[in-house]
Amino acid sequence: MADVKQFKLPDVGEGLTEADIVSWKVKPGDQVTVNQVIVEIETAKSLVELPSPFEGVVTELLVPEGQSVDVGTPIIAVDVSGEAAAEEPGPRDAVPAATAVEDDSAAREPGIHGSPAPKIERQAVLVGYGVKLGTTTRRRRKGSGARGGGGAGRVPAEPVSPAAPSGNGSAGKAGGAERPMAKPPVRKLAKELGVDLAALSGSGPEGTITREDVQAAAAGPAVAEAPGALAGPAVLAGGEERIPIRGVRKHTALAVSASAFTAPHVTEFLQIDVTETMSAVQRLRELPEFEGWRSSPLLLVAKALMLAVARHPMINSSWDEAAQEIVVKHYVNLGIAAATDRGLLVPNIKSAHAMSLPALARALSELAATARTGKTPPADLAHGTITITNVGVFGVDTGTPILTPGEAAILALGQVKEAPWVHEGALAVRQVTTLALSFDHRIVDGDLGSAVLRDIGAMLTDPVRMIAWG
Question: What is the C-alpha separation between 382 and 218, in angstroms, rounded?
């Protein structure tokens, strides 16, 4: 007897409420083992690979790629009885739509559970119906009930992957018309653009309608028929493109909005001569302790910031509104703002204040490499205490950075460039940069903010001060 268990989307971070299904690593009919990676999801902070908690045979993928789901929603069903591999593939008995709706609701209870008890009102578990092992299946839609007798008793389904099994590809409607094959995000896009899916011929596998098909129909015949029209970014009717707000970008938008309208920001600027710092960076690159790790001005800026924190601990604090307290952190989890293809991430280096300079160089290099892949662990994105954003890499002088939520200060480093400067009483061409320090004025007043910025500037002007003050 089959023993089907459903794996529900877990909270892989602190307070995660939803995630996007990026790509499935398995398909129905595949044998999986415990801790085998089965799916890649995108949370509000990073890409995460989820392992299987079960050993058995995949019977159904309950959520298609590209769809957002809440924590606690079943995403995959696995037969752990060991009998699935011996089952004869083929369609099973039809299930009343009302029963499927009831079970879909019950399936949203948090946790991982097995197949429901064999009561008639609990038989539709969204797994095991109409599945052909070794092929993909189409998940049922809530509320799309089949009415009447004959062959109309099967619940309409959505494709989980572009290839839908023949014979299960579309469900009958009351009039006998076939339901166009398209994923839920494509159906949503078609609804937004006013495109009738029934009027389209899908270009995907086995006639599945793709996002490009919908966009081409919305743009009109001229765009759809023009050679190479779909090669570039998809432009919709009226010359507009719509990009779903989800994942990292959604989280970033919420975070910066909350920060900007909660903490009163003040930003101060300081232009400094960093010629000696640039020479020091070049010297560090030649030392064997730094072999294999890229030394950059950011390394010494980070070191200077942590020494400034040691001299002025209040800059490394947070505002606890509920407790009506200022929390001063006597440790530094150094956040580094990283621009990635998925949006802005701010991973942090835990206990950076306790690291030697070579260890800090290694940590910065590893942080940047991981962030570029989009697979920074959620733990590395939480509990930062103060942040650096290196806007100089974009070729700009500086900016007015917004505080990372929960932190009292953020330092922006502008581009380093040659500029005329008065050095030792004479005009000379020097390496110059501009620093910008934004701080929470509830915690940091102008005197403290200025002192921190002056100290950082002094250490970067003369790196020997880092030795004296360290």
Answer: 42
